[in-house]
Structures are given as C-alpha cells and as structure tokens.
Amino acid sequence: MNCPLCEKPSLVEVVGITSVPVFCNVLYGTEAEARAATLGDIDLRFCPSCGLLVNTAFDESLLDYSPEYDNSLHFSPRFREFVGGLVRHLVEDRGISHGTVVEIGSGSGDFLSLLCEAGDNVGIGYDPSHDPHRAPPIASDRVTVRAEPYPVDRPVDALLVCSQHVLEHLHDPSALEVLRGVRSSLSPGDGTLQYHEVPDATYMVETGAIWDLIYEHVSYFAEPTMRAMVEAAGFEVIDSGRSFGDQYLWVEAVTGAQNTAAGFPAVDLGRLPTLVEEFGRRHRSTMELWDQRLSAMLAEGEVVVWGAGSKGVSFLNQMSGASEIGRLVDVNPRKRGRHVPGTGQVIVAPADLVDSPPTHVIVMNPLYTDEVSAMLAELGVGSTVHAMG
User: Fold this and answer.
1) Are 230 and 179 in contact (CB under 8 A)?
2) Please, which residues bridge with residue 103 across strands?
3) pLDDT digits (tens, 9 = 90+) for 209-221
4) Are 109 and 170 found together in one domain?
5) Rounded CA gap, 140 and 150, in Å?
6) Which of 73, 104, 150, 277 has its CA 20 to 30 A from that of 380?
7) What are φ and ψ of residue 293, in 5° steps?
8) Phi/psi of residue 366, each to 5°?
C-alpha cells in the first residue's frame, strides 16, 4: 500500500482498533440512538518516507458532517485564553487587519468572529455542513459562513486563509489537494498568509495519548510532514511550531512564486520513527494501566469523565469498565442532556454534580485540570480529580 501523501510504498503497521464511533463530536438525544451510532475501524499505519500517520481502514461513506457535529471548545476559559493569544499574534504581529480573512471549515465562525472583531476585518467562512437554521448564531455581523467548499475554481483576494483542525479530517479531496486548490486560487507572490493548525502527531506518540486516535481523523501530521505538505502545495513556509501545551501543530506560509512544487520534498523525520514504534507498543500497556486504575476508582464510588469531546468519547468506547460510568461533564451548554455515541452515557453540566457529587473525576485533557479543580471547588464538590496522562 502506497502512502496517500508522498506516494512512496511500504506503510508500516502501528495500531489496530475495532468498532469505534465514526463521529466523536456528534451526540444523540437518547441513549438508544447513541448506542446505535455507526462504528468503524482504525488501522493506523506509518510512512517511513514522509512521516504521515494514516488510518488505512477509513471509509468516507460512513461519514456525513451535519449540523449536529459540534466540536467547539470556546466555552472553556483555558481554551479562550489560547485562542485570544493566537488572534493577537495574527492581528498585531502578522498585520491581519482592515481586510478580508477566509477560514476553511469554519463551523459557526467562532474563531473567524474573533479575528474580525480584533482586526476590523471582514470574514468569509466555508463549511459545507453549515446550516444557518440549526447552527448557533454567528458571533459577529462581520462574518458570513457559506455552506460550500473553499472556492478553488475562482480567484480569492484575502489577507489570510486559515484552517483549524480541518486538514486531518480530509480524505477526498486530501489535505494536500485542498492546499493546492487554495494555492491555485491565489495570485503568485500576493502575500496572502496561510495559517493551518492540526493536532500534533509528535505529541500523541511522545506522550502515548492513545485517546487522541479517533475515526474522524484520517491523517496525523508531525511538524516535518506538515511543512513538507505545505511546501508541496506551492507555499513558502515562514514559521511553524507547537502550541496549546504542545498538543497542536501550526504552520504559517505565504504564496510562493510557483503554483505547485515539483514533487514531494525530502523529509527529515528525526526521532519520529522510533517514537511511532514505541507508541504502538505502549498502546496495549496504557489500556491495561487505565483498566486497573478505573477498576480501583469504581470500587470506591462513582466515577465521571470530564470532557465530552474526542478524548472522552474515545476513552469510554475503548475501556472495558466504562459501562459502569454513567455521566460525563462538559462546559458546553449545547451538550447537556445529550448522549455519547457508542456507549450512550448522558452529558451533564458542572452544576449538576452539586446534588450528587461523584467520588472521582477523570479530566481527559490535562491542560484543563486546574480549571476543572477550581470549578469544582467553587461548586463545593469535593471529588478527587485525576488528570489523564
């Protein structure tokens, strides 16, 4: 099987997981509906040439991104702090102000609204799943979200084209094809800034973050792979790095002189192959460790999971003892009363814990541990908090 990115042969097996929800970020009105959610398999493989991690068992026909899809993190103060810093960087350091900004896969335009309000910009979002009659209201009247793909067939005039946690979801067209389409819509040397952000594959394999493996993610990019892909699309990378506790990977680029690069660039992967090999071995041991920890917690009382996003849903659907967990907590009010795909647990608000406090709370993203502990203390809930990791 050839790599779908660099087209070199010999993908290496890493991890196989069966029967996971195809959508972690689509929730259901009843437990029965949630338990009947569509499931798929993950066959994670690694390309030793370009560093791509890809789910070769991915079946795009199982997916339908509808308005029910909700992966917004903007209700968390910790996440809002991160996004605020990113907006200031783009507006103040990169000069993204008094112009047009375009976002691919904009959802309800949360990030785009912040960019427009901070920089006196006009925003256009492209998201085929957007339904204005069912989606939350757009936060800024400076923003328009269009229910269509990015327009690769016509010129685009913008200061910035960006995407956040979109490229890893793309299969057909692939992330590389989409970036090449963006490049073809821009004039050579026009200076349009690119900002593209994805989950960082190096963080995942370094830390053994096995709950970050979800069906929605076709591909996982490490920094050298991401830079090479952006260059292969015809852009000149000006900066890249990790953010949000090293969990996110970002690349900034500008339009190069040529429309497309000649072939796929050579990639120096450094320690990545070794880390990937270790990640494959650690997957089973991490599962066994958390099976023991969860059993011990459940023996002492109720356990709830904090975070009804990808990590929480992945944890519940992979852990054998998760059927004894009855509730998840999430600060997104749109999730309250909904049910988790696959296992069916109900999602509650933090305040719902006051009348029936659990013994243990597992925080799926360790970056939110202080925020969760402070919130529980304010509510007078004395649960023991455990950070995943």
Assistant:
1) yes
2) 125, 162
3) 999 999 999 999 9
4) yes
5) 20
6) 73
7) -65, -45
8) -60, -20
